[in-house]
Every structure is written in C-alpha cells, then in structure tokens.
Design goal:
164 residues; mainly alpha; Rna Polymerase Sigma Factor, Chain: A; Arc Repressor Mutant, subunit A; 2 domains; 7 helices; 68% helix
Length: 164
C-alpha cells in the first residue's frame, strides 16, 4: 500500500475524488437516465454534478449525506435540462437501461413513458429505495407533493400496463 498524497486545497487524499466517483456514479447515472430517458443527457448530468462537487468541495457528515447531495444535484441538473428550450423532444428511448426479462422490460418501458417529474419520484422511490420523505428532500418539494406524484404515477403505470 502506498501513501496517498494530500490535496493542496483541502486535507482530503488525492484519491478521494476517484473513490467518490466510483462510489456514486452508477446510482447517479441510473437516476439521471430515469429522468432524462437519454444516455448522453444522463452522462452530461452526472459529469456536471461531479464538477459542482469538486468545485464547491463541501464537507459532509457521512458518505450517505454526500450521496444524497450528489443525487439532489443530479436531479436538479436533469430538471434544468428538460426545461431547456434547446432540448429535443424526440430523443430516442435508451436501450442501455437494464431489464432482466420481458416483464421487467415492459415495466421499464412504462416507467420511461411517464413525464419526467413522475419518472424521477418512481425511480428514486422504487429503484433506489429512498423513502417518500427522502425523495421529497432530493427533489426539493413537499412530502405531500411527492406522495401525490407517486400516486399519480402508479395510476398512469397501471393504465399503461393494463392497456397492453
């Protein structure tokens, strides 16, 4: 084992950045992909979130707090991207989101057909395992609004899946 050098601007080891990326990139990417429905946009959002982290260099109470901060920043970047007037409304559905079987593929297709605000809460709650209170904090909305979005999204998913 080698000795890690210290970053000049903080007391963190230089490999802190690499460890942070490796620990969080998959969860952030899945969240961004669920919201944007587009691999390139999801990659851009994750990259932008890491840039914000490395520029601001905030201190966190724990790695869970850091992950929550990164997810919240990623969600906000995705929301801004979707509001952008330059965003193409005809972006193809990404084939890179994993589904183990045909049934999961149908459910995934249904989730990705939802409007972005519903995709975000469904993904964070069901795929990432956050509680409604945590999803509300990550998306910067009231907990009651999050519960209502989950209810509406479930109804939409039920209609979509029963229609097939």
């Amino acid at each position: 084992m080698g000795v890690s050098c210290l970053d000049e601007q903080s007391d963190r080891p230089v490999d802190w950045a690499q460890e942070t990326v490796l620990r969080n990139e998959n969860k952030m990417f899945r969240s961004a992909l669920a919201i944007t429905g587009n691999r390139a946009d999801a990659e851009d959002a994750v990259q932008d979130a890491f840039v914000k982290l490395f520029e601001k260099r905030p201190s966190f109470e724990s790695s869970e707090h850091e992950t929550a901060w990164l997810i919240r920043v990623t969600v906000n970047i995705c929301k801004n991207l979707l509001r952008s007037p330059w965003r193409s409304k005809t972006a193809p559905l990404s084939d890179s989101y994993p589904a183990r079987n045909e049934e999961q593929s149908d459910v995934l297709q249904a989730v990705l057909s939802l409007p972005a605000k519903y995709r975000a809460v469904i993904h964070l709650h069901y795929y990432e395992g956050y509680s409604t209170k945590e999803v509300a904090a990550l998306t910067k909305q009231k907990e009651s609004a999050t519960r209502e979005q989950l209810t509406r999204a479930r109804r939409m998913l039920k209609k979509y899946l029963e229609g097939e």
